[in-house]
Amino acid sequence: MPERAINVSTRQVQSKRFTPHGEANFLYAEDDLLIVNATGPFNLEFIENLEVVEYSLMQEMSLRYPTWYALVTVSVSMMMTPDTLQRYAQHRKKMGEAGLNPKAIAFVMAPDVEGRSLMHPHLAQLYSEAGVQFAEFTEEQDARAWLMQIKQA
Fold it and tell me: 126, 84 in Cβ contact below 8 A?
């Protein structure tokens, strides 16, 4: 698959108030698959920065590919405060209404990622409400296989 380097990070956005906790690095696209590495825990300022970064990237992916997918590897922590989770859910819904969400997103998290099991039902609900198929895996190869099944369906 041809790769297209992206190399954009939430760290590149100037925060208006407090320091963001958490980081998302949009590394490259493999055709219609966007590859992201994220490190938590995540706070509201992180989500605000994520909104800025994602909007243009999601527009570009949606213009290139009417149907596209995302693979997100999360390390350290998946924890979010309730207000952060609410803001993220609102962001995903808004992106969905604009037709900018991926068709499916696979999260890869090692078993020792903090908050993994606690956050799973919240993530599943917010992605479902945003019209995005969601699954979580401990191994990248399993996540890629799941995404490939969805592509071929």
Answer: no
What's the mean per-residue pLDDT of the chain? 88
Angle formed at CA 138 by CA 23 and CA 52, multiple of 5 degrees? 25
Edge-to-edge strands, sheet with 33-39:
3-9, 23-30, 33-39, 69-75, 104-109, 133-137
**CA pair distance 136, 36, nearest whole angstrom:** 14
Q: Where would I find the beta strands (DSSP E) of the chain?
A: 3-9, 23-30, 33-39, 69-75, 104-109, 133-137
Q: For residue range 69-99, list pLDDT tens digits in order.
A: 999 999 999 999 999 999 999 999 999 999 9
Phi-psi region of 5 (alpha: psi -120 to 50; beta: other; left: phi over 0): beta
Helices first, then strands: H and E counts in the chain: 4, 6
| Beta pairing class for 23-30 and 3-9 | antiparallel
Determine contact, residues 46/13, Cβ cutoff 8 Å: no
Res 23 pLDDT > 90: no
Mean pLDDT within 26-54: 88
Q: Is-contact 20 43, C-beta < 8 A?
A: yes
